[in-house]
Amino acid sequence: MTDGNLRYVGVDLGGTKILALVVTDDGEVLARLKQQTDLAGDVSIANQIAAAIDGVVAEADLEAADIAGIGVAIPGTVDSRTGYIITVPNLQIDDLRMVDTLRDRFGLPVALGNDVNLGTLAECWQGAARGADSAVGIFVGTGIGGGVVIDGRIRAGAEDMAGEIGHLCLMVDGPVCGCGNLGCFEALASRTAMERDIRAGIAAGRESTITHYEKAGRLKSGALASALDDGDELVTEVMTRAAHYLAMGVLTIRHLLNPELIIFGGGVIEACSDFLIPLIEQDVAADNMKGSRDALRIVISELADDAVALGAAGLVRAEVTGVPLGRPLDESDEEAPLAYPNIDSVDFGVVVVDGAEIARDIQIRADGKLRNRKKKRLRKLYGTSHVIDGKEVARACKGNPDKLFIGQGFQGMIRLTDDAREYLEALAIACELLPSPDAAEAYNEAEGSKALILHVTC
Ligand SMILES: [Zn+2]
User: Fold this and answer.
1) pLDDT tens per residue across span 313-329
2) pTM of the entire predicted model
3) What is 7-121+305-331's CATH topology?
4) 128-301: CATH topology
5) 187 C-alpha to center of ligand 1: Å?
6) Is 410 exposed, middle or buried (0-12, 13-18, 19+ CB in 10 A)?
């Protein structure tokens, strides 16, 4: 079952459309089919999904027998043990045991999951959080949805209720939330909250250009972006405040879970990330409790409309193979030597790694992962980034390589601190300091486990 040629179907069930994908083992999309969700007609939702599956399989020139499993994402809560639907707040679904219906109909493994969780899972598999061991998704739209992925798996909690970060209380006695509670995250920072505050400002006599962009009586994400472009004072003020709450949400998640990454997505982020993300990063970096740790990495979702359906395919793939996403399918692969990135060239200010130009200093860690050097921390501590200290060496050498190569720039600018030397000695890691082009070459040619810290720009 792990020949690398399995095909999966992933379905994203929404209130207005059903999106179905045929996806390979590696997450490549082979076929895509979108149809309207018919809420008024006689055809059950399960049968509409079945029709979409038939359609997309035909679109891929395959038959049901070629498919290894079907994943379906729904906008609600699913019992992760049985696959039965618990609630779907905004859709009338008569068949809560749809998982059985689809299994009988296709004779295939079927897995159901929550759409936001699966969107987060897909970002970890194929998107902005690719390669991360842990990530939390924050999706800002009409509400705020969240998903938690740890070790390549969705963490849904004991009652499948985890990840409901939209309802973290961030303001006691704050504005009322759709859930009935006061001061929830989404009552402070969703598009609905932004619209409420903007309308209140206008009602109080403030001027705003945003009413020009109103569509069908609604302020969509595009309207917010246009008003920001206009330099609209009211909208800027409301969204700056929302950004502070989004940052509070990020910090709350960090205190609780300390994920490797936070993924921001959803309509508001897609339209207004240029404005919101720098404000959020500023607040996160200013957190008093950060200690000596580096700032949490914040990324923007990359998969757009395919994310949820792709995550659904990933869910059933993990179920069929028993291997979490992002892990090698074949166990023997885990013993195979790591595939280290190749340094194609090194020049002043730019290094090319596996064909990709990077205009920053980099690390290639012992586990083969490519990372940026964290120079802000070094400048703060030493007044220069021309220093490699014990902490940086430890980061690069996580997993204890045989050899560490250090590219000192073009004039041998970089020096090692004493604690860095002590670290390397204690773990018997051989270290070579060379001009950056030579260090890259030596690294490329070295056999066995290795790591690289490369200085190309100040
Ligand atoms: Zn709430």
Assistant:
1) 999 998 888 877 766 55
2) 0.69
3) Nucleotidyltransferase; domain 5 (3.30.420)
4) Nucleotidyltransferase; domain 5 (3.30.420)
5) 7
6) middle
